[in-house]
DNA sequence: ACACTATTTATAAACATTACAAAGTAAGAA
DNA sequence: TTCTTACTTTGTAATGTTTATAAATAGTGT
């Protein structure tokens, strides 16, 4: 499953003429395997073991490359640092206001919204993002 | 119209026990009158004339206060700096991938999505945000 | 294996945002 | 009105993320 996605991603890179380096391989693998939505720094730290000499710049560079190919999406919430999410299936995120937990949330998609937006604004729409905010079950229990 | 909104905002501040300073008044006024979605720095610069001694910190401090009262929303896109939007009526934003222009876009709201999200994830939902991305009419013409 | 070019690395720089302490001021009480 | 107190502002320094740069390195097609 994860193997499969990794191969697909590598194929996408080949098709885009992007070189496959060990660092890129590892960053992608981490993004696919980790169920979380890591920051650039978290990725950097978690690969320190395998790549003691890897630079933070490499992480940022490659996340940008992945974004440009469309393999990865950047999530900019209120916090200081961006989070990165492997684009696999269409899904949205629901975020806890208290503890910051991010949970994937599948929804049919909002094609009608995109269509209406095109008509109203004259834009040619390519994409959209949505996040839902609330209080996760754990934080609801600990009502302080 | 703008006058009215300003008064409402000031009342909201009074009710929350937040002091009304000239700086806060000016920042709010600017946010309401400007049809754009300014960054903290843009607000700071545009008030240089009236408040030559105002600190950037004041702008940030007060934007945080306004956010806490619910008068203002912070918009974090891919760019480096956040943008701030006066909460008036429910609306979404459509953003040009090329030139970064932000256009307001009214839509009935996505209550069903919130409801479904509650059921699926167990969160208690409070809010959501959505942005649509595309190419604005101007940038469509100048096909480079 | 070679050559060409993209990529990595290390470091410094840029940038937005926050922290802090001292000076100033809004707002209610006397 | 004046006083008092706690909240705000200011100026500056610090923090933290992200980008720029140049030299060293390593993929990839031939």
Automatic annotation (TrEMBL), chains A, B:
Main location: cytoplasm
GO CC annotations on file: cytoplasm
Subcellular location, record wording: Cytoplasm
Residue numbers binding Zn(2+): 96, 99, 136, 139
Record's keyword annotation contains Repressor: yes
GO biological process terms, semicolon-separated: negative regulation of DNA-templated transcription; regulation of secondary metabolite biosynthetic process
Protein name: Fur family transcriptional regulator
